[in-house]
């Protein structure tokens, strides 16, 4: 499967007179069938969410001791996702994988996303391409 990631940067203000304007970026991923999903960030959890939604995985939340845990479920397969500010953990009954949440090297991010997608979600690997948004 192929996917193209585009981004757009724009200036915004914090909402008060004392706040300085700052730059924000938005990201979209478009799959080869034309389906487009928005990404919250260009990181592992956001890319996995887009792939899971595209492949009809249901999402819900469960509470653990202190946090909400995102649950992906399809048929009898259940994957729990726990995030900290720096790490993300994907866990099934049989397997647990933990990764740095963000990485400056997109090749590493895409490799890790494909590892999670193929081993835990049984989704085919995705060939990601990053393109600047055409204006």
Automatic annotation (TrEMBL):
Source species, domain of life: Bacteria
Entry-linked Pfam families: DUF4809
Matching InterPro entries, A to Z? DUF4809
Q: What is this protein called?
A: DUF4809 domain-containing protein
Annotated organism of origin: Enterococcus saigonensis
